[in-house]
Amino acid sequence: MTADKIKLAFVVNDVATEQDNYSTIRLARRAVARGHQVALIGLGDFIYDWEEGICAMATLSKISEFEDDTDYLAHLQNTGMDRTRIALSDWDILMLRSDPAEELVARSWAPSSSLLFAQLASLQRTIVLNDPRHLTDAVNKTYFQGFPASVRPETMITREPKEVRRFLDAHGGKGVIKPLQGSGGQGVFLLDKRNRQNLNQITEAVIRDGYAIVQEYLPAAADGDLRIITLNGRPLKVDGTYASLRRFSQTEDHRSNISAGGGYEMMAPDENALAIAEIVGPKLIDDGMYLTGLDIVGDKMIELNVDTPGGISFMEDLSGVNFSGAIIDDLERKIRLQRQYGGTLTNRQLAVI
Fold first, then answer.
1. In Å, what is the CA distance from 129 to each residue of 94, 107, 230?
2. Which end of the chain lies in a sparser environment, N or C, as judged by fewer CB atoms within 10 Å?
3. Which listed CATH number (3.40.50.150, 1.10.490.160, 3.40.50.20, 1.20.1050.40) goes with 7-138+325-352?
4. Residue limits of the ATP-grasp domain (predicted)?
5. What is the spatial distance between Cα 19 and Cα 334, in angstroms, rounded to a whole number?
């Protein structure tokens, strides 16, 4: 069935701070190339209008053909690009693609405000992905603790240095500490005998802006981790290839995040990884988590990214597989289903159907 042209809006932290290797930019460029109307909205760009409901000041592409993501982003960030006022009730899909961790200091109000606007937008015809009501529950890593214990490393969440020490003593003196709300490997420390004398200082640095999460150290982490993209609660697989990437440290720094300088290569998920994806799938579906990133080490999931799951552009460039095109295909399918059911399906149902 030939897809009708759709209107697809992406919520980002700020158009000016987007980078050309972000998955959002790849998805947006693919959609523009198909003739869909695409808008980018910053967290501070929403408007509640007493007559029109949720509106926004948006950046829209003025042309549809771009050489690559860098060319597309340069077009969006051109200083001569005017923003356009749009009413979201006229738009088919709103994809929430902002990183709350980036707003902790300067704009702590922005993520929660944008989620409330998104919730209101989802009451109309606009499909909002991921489902904004459950996304509100997932604003930090406590959401992670709602998954079965069998797929999670043993964990403590605290702001007490003595509790961190007690956890380490119970786990052979080794563990990983990081902010409860964070991303991209920022503020992540490996704790062991070499830096035990600095434990108080490390803990204080992590809890400066909130709670710390401490996890048992997984020896398999020395080989990096596996990022698996899920779509509709299941691993994304296109033309026999999984959207799955091994990330590994290239320095003495233990972090494997690409944003922290880690290396990466395509790698198919093994039986352990697929088993984890199968276990977490039902909750992702029940919570309307359309697009997520599972970070897996050995037989444990160490992170779950439900806000800005990335790596898609890297996966495509390495494999030549059009994962972003498959996601756009799926968005077009959701719009068809919504229209065929005459608006009787809920936003959460449409998010993962």
1. 6, 22, 13
2. N
3. 3.40.50.20
4. 141-332
5. 28
Q: How big is the CA angle at 299 (ends 241 and 167), to the nearest 5 degrees? A: 140
Helix runs in 10-80, H state only: 23-33, 69-76
| Residues composing the chain | 353
The H-or-E segment that residue 114 falls in is helix 110-121
Q: Where are the beta strands (DSSP E) in 137-290?
A: 155-158, 175-179, 189-191, 212-216, 225-231, 234-235, 237-238, 241-242, 244-248, 263-266
Phi, psi of 230 (to 5 degrees): -110, 145
141-148+220-322 folds as D-amino Acid Aminotransferase; Chain A, domain 1 (3.30.470)
CB 312 within 8 A of CB 23: yes
User: So where are the chain's domains?
Assistant: 7-138+325-352, 141-148+220-322, 154-217
CB 293 within 8 A of CB 133: no
Token pair for 122: 């989802």
Amino acid letter, 86: I
What tokens appear for 283 in the block?
């909750």
Tokens of 36: 């869909």
Question: d(Cα 323, Cα 315) in Å, to the nearest integer?
Answer: 8
Query: What are the beta bridge partners of residue 55?
Result: 47, 87
How does pLDDT run across 169-214, given as a tens digit for each residue? 999 999 999 888 765 557 789 988 888 888 888 988 888 878 999 9
Task: Return the amino acid letter for 280.
Answer: V
The pLDDT tens digits for 163-176 are 999 999 999 999 99
> pTM of the entire structure?
0.91
Q: What is the pLDDT of residue 1?
A: 42
Worst-scoring range by mean pLDDT, 124-138, 185-199, 302-316?
185-199
Is residue 254 scored above 60 in pLDDT?
no
Q: Which residues contact 346 (CB under 8 A, 6 or more apart)?
A: none
